[in-house]
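Researcher: I need the complex structure. Ligand is S-adenosylmethionine. Inputs:
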Amino acid sequence: MTVESVTSSVEIGGLLFAYDQRVLEPRPWTRAQSEWARDLLDEVPDGPVLELCSGAGHIGLLALLGNQRPLVMVDADEVACRFARMNAIAAGLVDRVEIRHGQLEEQVRPSETFPLVIADPPWVPSDEVGRFPQDPVLAIDGGVDGLGPTRGCLHVIDQHLDRAGCAVLQVGGPAHVTGIGEWLDSRPSVRLRVSETRAFGDRGVLVLLRRPSGDEPC
Ligand SMILES: C[S@@+](CC[C@H](N)C(=O)[O-])C[C@H]1O[C@@H](n2cnc3c(N)ncnc32)[C@H](O)[C@@H]1O
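Model: Output:
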């Protein structure tokens, strides 16, 4: 049986975002990630924003309000990329947005650097995705420990973050923050540190990543 997709929309931060059941429904609380990113844009060098795991695109698009930065969005789901484009057009931002469809590790050119990276990878452990039947598996499956795609994001951030740049990464909870800290501690070649976290109850945690002291400060 084919399930017909019905386009819905949600207003977040003054913009309207379209989506359907094939992609993750944009969650209003995550505008906090856009707002934090927007604040950080005042202090990082000039240049484009990179958004990894952009889905229907609301987090990155909201981060563009009030500034003139370009945005590169990356997502492995073609349908999500189509919604991101549609939402960029509706927001009047499409001229500043480049949408790249594919695996996050393969979509950034070796020479590219970004002063700000936003990342929202899936983080539900694979054996728990059944608890969220309404969500597409690709959007939530974080691998055995929930941190597989997050580690992928950390690699991309490390390779492409400006020396004076910052990244705002979304994870599921404090255990993920601990896991990220331990993973970074065990890989000194990865030049990132957890600088600050902001928790949003049981909805998620935002993690600010910077270069370690000794590298140029953000
Ligand atoms: C948690 S959802 C976040 C989507 C969007 N930021 C939001 O808040 O609605 C994760 C997104 O990552 C994408 N994704 C999963 N694995 C990926 C990968 N390896 N490379 C690129 N995108 C991936 C999924 O298609 C999904 O859109």
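Model: Summary of the prediction. Residues 152 and 181 are 15 Å apart (CA to CA).
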